[in-house]
Amino acid sequence: MPYTMINERQIWHEVVGTGAPVVLLHGAFGGAASFVAQTPALAAAGFQVYLPERSGHAHSPDIPGPFTYSGMADETIAYLDLTLGRRADLIGWSDGAVVALLVALKRPDLVRRMILIGQYYNSAGKVAASELDEWLKTPEAAAMLRQGYDPFTPDGPEHFPIILEKTLQMIATEPELDLAALSAISAPTLVLQGDRDIVTVQHSCDVVATIPAARLAILPGTHALPIELPEVVNPLLLSFLSASAAMNENRFPNEG
To answer: How far apart are CA 110 and CA 100, in angstroms?
Structure first.
Protein backbone atom coordinates (compact mmCIF):
# COMPACT_ATOMS: atom_id res chain seq x y z
CA MET A 1 0.00 0.00 0.00
CA PRO A 2 1.32 3.50 -0.81
CA TYR A 3 1.78 4.82 2.73
CA THR A 4 4.25 7.47 3.85
CA MET A 5 5.18 8.44 7.40
CA ILE A 6 4.41 12.06 8.31
CA ASN A 7 5.27 13.09 11.87
CA GLU A 8 4.83 9.48 13.05
CA ARG A 9 1.50 9.22 11.23
CA GLN A 10 0.74 6.77 8.46
CA ILE A 11 -0.64 8.77 5.54
CA TRP A 12 -1.89 6.98 2.44
CA HIS A 13 -1.26 8.75 -0.84
CA GLU A 14 -1.17 8.11 -4.54
CA VAL A 15 0.92 9.84 -7.21
CA VAL A 16 -0.23 9.81 -10.83
CA GLY A 17 1.47 11.21 -13.93
CA THR A 18 4.58 13.32 -14.47
CA GLY A 19 5.15 17.05 -14.67
CA ALA A 20 4.46 20.06 -12.47
CA PRO A 21 3.02 18.98 -9.09
CA VAL A 22 -0.64 19.50 -8.26
CA VAL A 23 -1.99 18.31 -4.90
CA LEU A 24 -5.68 17.39 -4.59
CA LEU A 25 -7.19 17.88 -1.13
CA HIS A 26 -10.41 15.99 -0.46
CA GLY A 27 -13.38 16.91 1.69
CA ALA A 28 -14.98 15.38 4.79
CA PHE A 29 -15.49 11.60 4.69
CA GLY A 30 -13.61 11.55 1.38
CA GLY A 31 -10.30 10.38 0.01
CA ALA A 32 -8.39 10.16 -3.24
CA ALA A 33 -11.41 8.62 -4.96
CA SER A 34 -13.25 11.95 -4.58
CA PHE A 35 -11.20 13.19 -7.55
CA VAL A 36 -11.77 10.20 -9.81
CA ALA A 37 -13.04 12.55 -12.54
CA GLN A 38 -10.19 15.08 -12.20
CA THR A 39 -7.06 12.95 -11.70
CA PRO A 40 -6.80 11.49 -15.22
CA ALA A 41 -7.54 14.85 -16.84
CA LEU A 42 -4.81 16.60 -14.86
CA ALA A 43 -2.30 13.80 -15.47
CA ALA A 44 -3.07 13.82 -19.20
CA ALA A 45 -2.47 17.58 -19.27
CA GLY A 46 1.08 17.16 -17.96
CA PHE A 47 0.71 17.41 -14.20
CA GLN A 48 2.01 15.05 -11.55
CA VAL A 49 -1.03 14.55 -9.34
CA TYR A 50 -0.60 13.95 -5.60
CA LEU A 51 -3.56 12.52 -3.70
CA PRO A 52 -2.96 12.39 0.07
CA GLU A 53 -5.66 11.10 2.39
CA ARG A 54 -5.75 12.92 5.72
CA SER A 55 -5.66 11.07 9.05
CA GLY A 56 -8.97 9.35 9.76
CA HIS A 57 -10.05 9.40 6.11
CA ALA A 58 -10.28 6.43 3.74
CA HIS A 59 -7.01 4.41 3.93
CA SER A 60 -5.26 6.64 6.52
CA PRO A 61 -5.67 5.59 10.18
CA ASP A 62 -7.22 7.97 12.66
CA ILE A 63 -5.26 9.84 15.32
CA PRO A 64 -6.32 10.66 18.90
CA GLY A 65 -8.20 13.86 19.55
CA PRO A 66 -10.68 16.02 17.65
CA PHE A 67 -10.50 17.00 14.01
CA THR A 68 -9.55 20.64 13.41
CA TYR A 69 -8.85 22.47 10.17
CA SER A 70 -5.65 23.90 11.63
CA GLY A 71 -4.41 20.43 12.51
CA MET A 72 -5.29 19.16 9.03
CA ALA A 73 -3.39 22.06 7.49
CA ASP A 74 -0.33 21.32 9.64
CA GLU A 75 -0.43 17.69 8.56
CA THR A 76 -0.70 18.77 4.92
CA ILE A 77 2.24 21.16 5.32
CA ALA A 78 4.34 18.32 6.74
CA TYR A 79 3.27 16.14 3.80
CA LEU A 80 4.22 18.81 1.27
CA ASP A 81 7.58 19.44 2.94
CA LEU A 82 8.50 15.76 3.04
CA THR A 83 7.00 14.50 -0.22
CA LEU A 84 7.53 17.44 -2.57
CA GLY A 85 9.84 19.92 -0.88
CA ARG A 86 8.86 22.61 -3.35
CA ARG A 87 6.02 24.85 -4.43
CA ALA A 88 2.93 23.08 -5.80
CA ASP A 89 -0.55 23.86 -7.09
CA LEU A 90 -3.27 23.04 -4.56
CA ILE A 91 -6.85 22.09 -5.46
CA GLY A 92 -9.11 21.79 -2.44
CA TRP A 93 -12.74 20.73 -2.49
CA SER A 94 -15.07 21.29 0.50
CA ASP A 95 -13.02 20.74 3.69
CA GLY A 96 -9.99 20.44 1.43
CA ALA A 97 -10.49 24.06 0.38
CA VAL A 98 -10.20 25.21 4.00
CA VAL A 99 -7.04 23.14 4.36
CA ALA A 100 -5.57 24.64 1.16
CA LEU A 101 -6.39 28.17 2.30
CA LEU A 102 -4.74 27.62 5.69
CA VAL A 103 -1.65 26.14 4.03
CA ALA A 104 -1.41 29.27 1.86
CA LEU A 105 -1.64 31.45 4.97
CA LYS A 106 0.79 29.42 7.09
CA ARG A 107 3.32 28.47 4.40
CA PRO A 108 2.98 30.62 1.30
CA ASP A 109 6.33 29.27 0.09
CA LEU A 110 4.64 25.92 -0.60
CA VAL A 111 1.77 27.23 -2.75
CA ARG A 112 2.17 28.17 -6.39
CA ARG A 113 -1.48 28.40 -7.45
CA MET A 114 -4.68 27.48 -5.65
CA ILE A 115 -8.19 26.40 -6.61
CA LEU A 116 -10.86 26.43 -3.88
CA ILE A 117 -14.09 24.57 -4.62
CA GLY A 118 -17.43 24.84 -2.83
CA GLN A 119 -16.54 26.08 0.64
CA TYR A 120 -17.26 28.87 3.14
CA TYR A 121 -14.56 30.18 5.50
CA ASN A 122 -16.74 31.45 8.31
CA SER A 123 -20.33 30.83 9.38
CA ALA A 124 -21.52 34.07 7.77
CA GLY A 125 -20.84 32.50 4.38
CA LYS A 126 -22.72 29.28 5.00
CA VAL A 127 -26.08 28.71 3.37
CA ALA A 128 -28.58 28.48 6.22
CA ALA A 129 -30.17 25.05 6.77
CA SER A 130 -28.63 23.57 3.63
CA GLU A 131 -29.89 20.24 2.37
CA LEU A 132 -26.44 18.76 2.94
CA ASP A 133 -26.42 19.77 6.61
CA GLU A 134 -29.80 18.17 7.17
CA TRP A 135 -28.84 15.04 5.24
CA LEU A 136 -25.65 14.50 7.26
CA LYS A 137 -27.74 14.07 10.41
CA THR A 138 -29.74 11.15 9.00
CA PRO A 139 -29.14 7.39 9.29
CA GLU A 140 -29.22 7.25 5.48
CA ALA A 141 -26.21 9.56 5.35
CA ALA A 142 -24.24 7.44 7.82
CA ALA A 143 -25.01 4.30 5.82
CA MET A 144 -23.89 5.91 2.57
CA LEU A 145 -20.73 7.45 4.01
CA ARG A 146 -19.72 4.10 5.48
CA GLN A 147 -19.48 2.71 1.94
CA GLY A 148 -16.44 4.91 1.35
CA TYR A 149 -14.95 4.20 4.77
CA ASP A 150 -15.55 0.65 6.01
CA PRO A 151 -13.82 -1.26 3.15
CA PHE A 152 -10.63 0.84 3.33
CA THR A 153 -9.93 2.00 6.87
CA PRO A 154 -7.19 0.19 8.80
CA ASP A 155 -9.10 1.12 11.97
CA GLY A 156 -11.96 -1.24 11.17
CA PRO A 157 -15.63 -0.45 10.42
CA GLU A 158 -16.40 -0.20 14.13
CA HIS A 159 -14.41 3.06 14.21
CA PHE A 160 -16.79 4.90 11.87
CA PRO A 161 -19.09 6.32 14.61
CA ILE A 162 -16.05 8.08 16.09
CA ILE A 163 -15.13 9.57 12.70
CA LEU A 164 -18.72 10.68 12.18
CA GLU A 165 -18.89 12.38 15.58
CA LYS A 166 -15.50 14.10 15.16
CA THR A 167 -16.37 15.36 11.68
CA LEU A 168 -19.83 16.65 12.56
CA GLN A 169 -18.40 18.41 15.61
CA MET A 170 -15.75 20.14 13.50
CA ILE A 171 -18.08 21.35 10.78
CA ALA A 172 -20.58 22.56 13.40
CA THR A 173 -17.97 24.91 14.89
CA GLU A 174 -15.43 25.58 12.13
CA PRO A 175 -14.15 27.34 10.12
CA GLU A 176 -14.35 30.85 11.55
CA LEU A 177 -11.73 32.80 9.62
CA ASP A 178 -11.54 36.57 9.40
CA LEU A 179 -11.65 37.21 5.66
CA ALA A 180 -9.42 40.25 6.08
CA ALA A 181 -6.53 37.86 6.80
CA LEU A 182 -6.82 36.47 3.28
CA SER A 183 -5.30 39.66 1.88
CA ALA A 184 -1.91 38.14 2.78
CA ILE A 185 -2.33 35.36 0.19
CA SER A 186 -0.20 36.04 -2.89
CA ALA A 187 -0.87 32.86 -4.89
CA PRO A 188 -3.16 33.21 -7.93
CA THR A 189 -6.45 31.73 -6.74
CA LEU A 190 -9.63 30.49 -8.40
CA VAL A 191 -12.73 30.35 -6.21
CA LEU A 192 -15.28 27.96 -7.74
CA GLN A 193 -18.73 26.99 -6.54
CA GLY A 194 -22.09 25.73 -7.70
CA ASP A 195 -25.05 28.07 -7.78
CA ARG A 196 -26.82 25.69 -5.33
CA ASP A 197 -23.78 25.04 -3.15
CA ILE A 198 -23.39 25.20 0.64
CA VAL A 199 -21.65 28.58 0.38
CA THR A 200 -23.35 31.83 -0.56
CA VAL A 201 -22.30 33.57 -3.75
CA GLN A 202 -21.79 36.78 -1.78
CA HIS A 203 -19.29 35.04 0.50
CA SER A 204 -17.29 33.80 -2.47
CA CYS A 205 -17.38 37.31 -3.93
CA ASP A 206 -16.01 38.64 -0.63
CA VAL A 207 -13.22 36.05 -0.64
CA VAL A 208 -12.25 36.98 -4.20
CA ALA A 209 -12.34 40.68 -3.35
CA THR A 210 -9.91 40.07 -0.47
CA ILE A 211 -7.32 37.78 -2.07
CA PRO A 212 -5.27 40.06 -4.36
CA ALA A 213 -4.90 37.63 -7.30
CA ALA A 214 -8.23 35.79 -7.10
CA ARG A 215 -10.96 35.10 -9.63
CA LEU A 216 -14.48 33.71 -9.25
CA ALA A 217 -16.42 31.11 -11.22
CA ILE A 218 -20.03 30.10 -10.56
CA LEU A 219 -21.35 27.02 -12.33
CA PRO A 220 -24.82 25.47 -12.31
CA GLY A 221 -24.65 22.74 -9.70
CA THR A 222 -24.50 21.67 -6.07
CA HIS A 223 -21.73 20.91 -3.58
CA ALA A 224 -20.94 17.82 -5.67
CA LEU A 225 -19.87 19.97 -8.62
CA PRO A 226 -16.63 18.11 -9.55
CA ILE A 227 -18.58 14.85 -9.78
CA GLU A 228 -21.73 16.36 -11.28
CA LEU A 229 -20.10 18.37 -14.04
CA PRO A 230 -16.53 17.19 -14.76
CA GLU A 231 -16.90 18.02 -18.45
CA VAL A 232 -17.12 21.70 -17.45
CA VAL A 233 -15.09 21.70 -14.23
CA ASN A 234 -11.99 19.98 -15.65
CA PRO A 235 -11.43 22.39 -18.58
CA LEU A 236 -11.95 25.28 -16.17
CA LEU A 237 -9.32 23.93 -13.77
CA LEU A 238 -6.84 23.39 -16.61
CA SER A 239 -7.59 26.78 -18.13
CA PHE A 240 -6.92 28.55 -14.85
CA LEU A 241 -3.71 26.65 -14.17
CA SER A 242 -2.46 27.41 -17.68
CA ALA A 243 -3.53 31.05 -17.70
CA SER A 244 -1.87 31.78 -14.37
CA ALA A 245 1.28 29.80 -15.17
CA ALA A 246 3.13 32.61 -16.95
CA MET A 247 2.60 34.97 -14.02
CA ASN A 248 3.97 32.48 -11.52
CA GLU A 249 6.87 31.38 -13.73
CA ASN A 250 7.97 35.00 -14.00
CA ARG A 251 7.90 35.31 -10.20
CA PHE A 252 9.47 31.88 -9.53
CA PRO A 253 11.58 31.21 -12.65
CA ASN A 254 13.59 28.31 -11.19
CA GLU A 255 10.60 26.16 -10.22
CA GLY A 256 8.91 23.54 -12.34
So the answer is: 10
